[in-house]
Amino acid sequence: MNKLLNGLLLASTVVIAPMSYAKVDTINGAGATFPYPVYAKWAEAYNKAEGVKLNYQSIGSGGGIKQIKAKTVDFGASDAPLTKEELDQAGLAQFPAVMGAIVAVINVKGIEAGQLKLSGQLLADIYSGKVKMWDDAAIASLNEGVKLPHMPIYTVHRSDGSGTTFNFTDYLARVSPEWQKNVGVGKEVAWPKEAQQLGGKGNEGVANFVSRTPGSIGYVEFAYAKSNNLTYTQMENKAGKFVKPEMAAFQAAAANADWTNAPGFHLILNDQPGDASWPMTAATFILVYKQQDDAAKGDAVLKFFDWSFANGDQAAEALDYIPMPDSVVKMIEDMWRNDVKDTQGMAVYK
After folding, report:
1. Strand pairing of 291-292 and 281-289?
2. pTM of whole model > 0.70?
3. Per-residue model confidence (pLDDT) at position 19
4. Integer-rounded Cα radius of gyration of the chain
5. Which of 13, 72, 102, 169 shows its CA 20 to 30 Å from the CA of 267?
C-alpha cells in the first residue's frame, strides 16, 4: 500500500525548475553623476568577468528618475531617494548601491587641500550671499593664521536636476534655519541672487567651474575632488569637531545609518552624530520596476548589482566610496525576491 501511495505521489509531483532568461549583452541605466566613477569601474570589471556591457548615462538624478518612469532605460539612478509613497505610485522598487561623501571645494590661491575650516552655518551664509569675500570676519574667525585674500566669492552649483544638490541643500537646511526657510531642499532650488553664482552640469561641470574660476567654491562628490585635484575644506560636524574628508570619517557617519527602519530604503545620512563623522554623507540609489515587462533585462540588472556587491568593495573604497554592509545587502536581496517580479508573478532574482 505504501509503495502504491509513493508511486502515486511521485507520478503527481510536478518539478518546477527555476526559470532562466535569455542572455542579455547590454544593460542601460541613467541618472546620478555622484556614483558614476564607481559604476564605471564595476562595469569594466563585470564586462571582463561576465561579458555583459553596462551603458550608463551620467545625466543627473532628475534625468534618471524621468527616464526610468518613461521606461527608456533598464534602471534609473538617483542620489535623492524616493519616498515609499512615490515608489508605490510609480510601480518602482529602490535600493541603495553605495555610500559616499559630498565635499566643499575651493579655488583660493595659497590655500592647500584640507587647510581651510568651514562650518555648516558659514557654508549656508556663503551660498546665501551673506558672506561675499574670502577675508570676511566670519571665515577669518575659524581660520586663525591662514592668510585669506581680499577677493570676491563665486558660488558654483548644479544647473541640472541633481541628487547631489538635494543632499547638499538638505544638509544646509539641517544646520541653518534661515536656509530651511528661504531656500529649502530639492534637486533644483532657487539659488539666492545675493550670491555671485555659476551653474555647472553634473559633478563634472561643477568641478570644471571651480578648477578654472579663482575665488570660487563648489560642492562635489569626493571622488571628483580627488580626480580633479581640487582643494577641499575641513567641515565642522554635529559634535562641533572639525574633520577632514577621509574614509574613516565617511565610515563613522555611515555607521549610524538605520536601514532597518527605512521604508523603501528611504534614508538620508547627513549631519550624523559622532566626533569623527563627516557631516555631508549620502547613499545613492537604484530604481527598477516592480513588474518587469522584459524579465531578461530585469534579471540582468539585478545580476550586475549582485555581482558588484560581492566583488566591488575594493574598487569602491579605492575611490573613497563606502560599500554597503553585508547586512544591508541581505535586506536588498530579500527585497529583490519579494518585490521584483516578471509578468507571471515569479521572482526575477533567484
Report:
1. unpaired
2. yes
3. 63
4. 23
5. 72
